[in-house]
Each structure stands twice: as C-alpha cells, then as structure tokens.
Amino acid sequence: MKALMNGIRSILFNLTFYPFTLIFCGLILAPISMFVSEAKTRKGVDFYCRGSLWIARVFGGIRHEYRGLEKLPKDGALILAAAHQSNMDPIMTFPLRNDVTALAKRQLFSVPFIGRILKKMRIVRIDRESRNAHKGMDQVAKHVVNLGRPLIVYPQATRVPPGQTRRLKSGAFHLQESTGLSVYTVSTNTGLFWTKGFWHRAGTAVFEIDGPFAPGRTKEEFMALLEDKVVDRSHQLMVEAGYEHLIPKKTK
Fold first, then answer.
1. pLDDT more than 90, % of the chain
2. How far apart are the first and last CA of the chain?
3. How far is it, in rounded angstroms, from Cα 203 to Cα 243?
4. d(CA 246, CA 82)
5. pLDDT of the residue at 116
6. Is the pLDDT of residue 250 over 80?
7. What are the residues whose beta carbons fall under 8 Å from the beta carbon of 30, sequence distance 6 or more?
8. How far apart are the C-alpha atoms of 223 and 218, rounded to whole Å?
9. CB–CB of 117/25 below 8 Å?
10. What is the percent of the chain with per-residue pLDDT over 70, rounded to a whole number?
11. CA 249, 153, 233: angle at the middle one, nearest 5?
12. DSSP conformation letters of 230-248
C-alpha cells in the first residue's frame, strides 16, 4: 500500500513540478531577468523555490524540516559546505539566504533560460574539466568577499544518492584559507525522498546546519570535519528516517 501511494504521489508530483518549472523559469523568470534588477530576479528565484517545496509537500508528500537555522548569520559572507543528495538541496538552500551564490559548471551557462538567470544572479562559472580548475579558487574567494554573500559549495562535487559514496574535494578548505571566512556545514537526507529518478518517497527531508567553524585547521583536520559533518551526519539522518539499510557498509 505504501509503495502504491508513493507511486501515485510521484506521478502527481512530476505532472505538477516539471510544468511549473518550465513555465515559471522559461516564460516568466528568464524573460524578466533581462529587464529587472538582480534583487528582483532573486525574489523570483525565491518564489520558485518556495513554490517547488509546496508542490513537493502537497503532491509528493515530501515535507521539509530545517534544523540549526539559528546558527546561520542573516547577512555577510560565509561558506556553506553542504551534502548534495538531490535537486532538492539547492531549492532548500535559497530560501535561507536569497543572496546566496554558488559555483556552476560552465556548460550550464549555455542552457536556454537557465544560463541567463545564472548570469543575472552572478553565479560563479567554473570549468570542472580543466586540470587547473583549483587555481581559480583565489578569484572565487575575491568574488565572494567583495559581494559579502554566502557561497554554497558541495565537497562531493556532484549529487551522491543515498547508498553511494564519493571522495570529498578540498575546495572549501582552500576557500576558507583564501578568505578567512567561517564555514558552516549542511547535512541532509533529501535523496531518500526527492530522488534522482521518477519515483519518489513521502517523508520528511531534513536540512541541518552546523557551525561556525573558524579557520585554523590543517587540511587533514578540515577534511575530517567535513567527513563527519557532511557525510557521516547525513547518514545519521538517514538512520533517523528509517533507511539504515541504504548506508554504505564501510561508513556505518
């Protein structure tokens, strides 16, 4: 019965979310981003994210819960080092601080509608395929400090569905060294519910913030911190939700 209900909810969610995304981003957000300010464009993105979370809750049965919000400053630059399990992660991030910026692979800037919005919001373009990509971190650091905004980075570099592992990248460490900014971590279990595929699960997606973590750690200490707060804590949230069987055995 539970599987049947999840199947029905998944169909309703997909029939609602994707048309909403196409219409809002393609026919509303992208065109207005050509004529209005960045601030108003960001308000449009904020509306899209909140609307998407509403659709997920009403049609997909996917609720969301924020934890540790009191730890996150309401203004000023900082670094968010976050777990990345699903497309729900950036959607849950934006309403926290709609001045947030991010790193995006250069190919996305060529995508119709999306590219225009990213440029208007001054999202940082990076070339992940370049062997010298790490050398651009100094420029990224200057960009973040000058804007005075939070920067979200994904140490896993890409979406890592529950049950899979990926070696963490050290970009957040180098950014902290270059900027002296505090790092806040985000653990999550969103991939259990808003999955990478067509079929989703009803439940409560948790987005947990911890920090601040000031500069001063060695690279090894910093990466161990990320492993604990980004990876291991996300696994604990999966256990809390009743999906311990999906955790890779070597990380239990």
1. 55
2. 30
3. 11
4. 20
5. 75
6. no
7. 112, 113, 114, 116, 117
8. 9
9. yes
10. 93
11. 35
12. IIIHHHHHHHHTT-GGGS-
